[in-house]
Amino acid sequence: MPPRTPEETFRRLLELLLAKDMDAIADLWAEHGTAEFPFAEGDAPRQLTGREAVRAYLAGYPDLMDVREIPAVTVHHTGRPDTIVVEFTAHGRTVATGEPYQLDYITVLTTHRGLISRYRDYWNPLAAASAAGTLPGLLGSLRSGATR
To answer: I want to staple 91 with a disulfide (CB 3.0 to 4.6 A). Which of 14, 35, 69, 84 is the partner?
Structure first.
């Protein structure tokens, strides 16, 4: 069987996210692949290097966010056959509060032999913190960072 295309890999990632199978999501990463979060703030990491770092990062995700639906996915193919840009929306609820949430993402995904070699995830940190119930802490960290 030939390796998955970048789009097939990404769509598999979304299926696994809905199934809450974080280990299987981590298995989509190349051994030394990266996950980057350029808009991350506060205590959130800006970069993870390696499959096991991704696995550790994702381990508690279902305890924080209950993703129930990915109603919109748009894939943009680039001039590079190994790279796609994906716009998608996730709907669900915050586990701690039970509050519903909706987050929009833009992801740039690069694969090698069907595994993720680079994953750049762009999302609104204020919307994510609001959904997670951590907005006051994030705003406090931003305020203290601005006064340094």
So the answer is: 69
**Assigned domain for 1 exists:** no
Tell me the two tokens of residue 6: 């970048």
Rg over CA atoms, the chain: 16
What CATH number should be reported for the domain holding residue 99?
Answer: 3.10.450.50
**pTM, two decimal places:** 0.86
Among the residue ranges 25-29, 40-44, 117-121, the one predicted with the least confidence is: 40-44
* Sequence-distant contacts of 130-135: CB under 8 A, at least 24 apart: 130/101, 131/65, 131/94, 131/99, 131/101, 131/103, 132/64, 132/65, 132/94, 132/96, 133/94, 133/96, 133/97, 133/99, 134/42
- Domain of 122 in residue numbering reads as 6-146
Mean pLDDT of 94-105: 88
**Cβ atoms 7, 75 nearer than 8 A:** yes
